[in-house]
Amino acid sequence: MHAEHQDIGVSQVAAAIAEPARTKILCSLMDGHARTSTELAAVAEVSASTASAHLAKLKDLALVRLHIQGRHRYYSLADKRVAQALEALMVIGQNTAPTFKPHTPDRLRFARTCYDHMAGTLAVLLHDRLIDAGWLVATDEQAYRLSESGEVLFAQLGIEVRDLTAMRRKFACPCLDWSMRRPHLGGSLGAALLQTALKRNWVTQDLDRRALTLTAAGRKQISARFGVELAAEEQINRSQPSAAPTGGAYTR
């Protein structure tokens, strides 16, 4: 009976995500921000009443969470597991249609948020460099630890590693990147690295998109601290917003 209930639950969630407007709503929330139903209606390109119905369905299935502040109502993803599931589905979606040309803007593929950590080409390059330099060491297929030199590196960035290891979530783990189809860094360490990059203005984040823009200072610091070389000309081209329809940053 338990297995049967699980099957029903999976089919209900799959059906909810499969609806195009609801997919756009969920993907738009993968940057970790909370948004109003009006904002999400614009993203999904549906009426306010239709968006409210979609949000009610997503809330009933525990895919989104409602936050009430006074007269204002905001919606966010229920938790990071929903973002991880969406990211995995994006990978599978590309694999099932190898001849499909994605409409995702180059700047979103280059650097973006994956809930609370960094994703895209830049994140994969950083992940690979951390591994190659011996700063990040795999303990199994789904977990990493820092070497002594890795702890020094992150301490120099002002990241308190001991505090992160005490959190009730994975410290560091691979997260399969849907655009690169290779891992980027997830877990509390990945989240801390993104926050450091934002605070130090290495990257800037659009308020209404998942896209991250690598700054000139960020390019220099990432090269100096991590040894990841990025061509200035390539980055300038990738940083410019691409022409796209409303909500285009969330299409695949």
Protein architecture, described:
This protein has 252 residues and is of the alpha+beta class. It folds into two domains: 2-78, Winged helix-like DNA-binding domain superfamily/Winged helix DNA-binding domain (Arc Repressor Mutant, subunit A), CATH 1.10.10.10; 106-239, no CATH class. It is built from twelve helices and ten strands. The strands form five sheets. The chain has a two-stranded antiparallel sheet. A hairpin with a 2-residue loop joins strand 3 and strand 4 (117-119). The radius of gyration is 19 Å and the shape is globular.
Short description:
The protein contains twelve helices and ten strands.
- Main structural class: alpha+beta
Q: Which regions have little confidence, pLDDT < 50, spanning 5+ residues?
A: 97-103, 233-252
Helix content: 40-55%
Number of domains: 2
How many helices in DSSP terms?
12
Mean pLDDT: 82
Mind describing the biggest β-sheet? 2 strands, antiparallel
User: Rg from C-alpha positions?
Assistant: 19 Å
Order of helices and strands: HHHHEEHHEEHEEHHEEHEEHH
For the record, give the distance between the C-alpha atoms at the N and C termini, rounded to a whole number: 37 Å
- Can you list the strand order of the major beta sheet? 1-2
Domain HTH arsR-type: 2-97
Protein name: Helix-turn-helix transcriptional regulator
Pfam family, one: HTH_5
InterPro entries: ArsR-like_HTH, HTH_ArsR_DNA-bd_dom, HTH_Metal-responsive_Reg, WH-like_DNA-bd_sf, WH_DNA-bd_sf
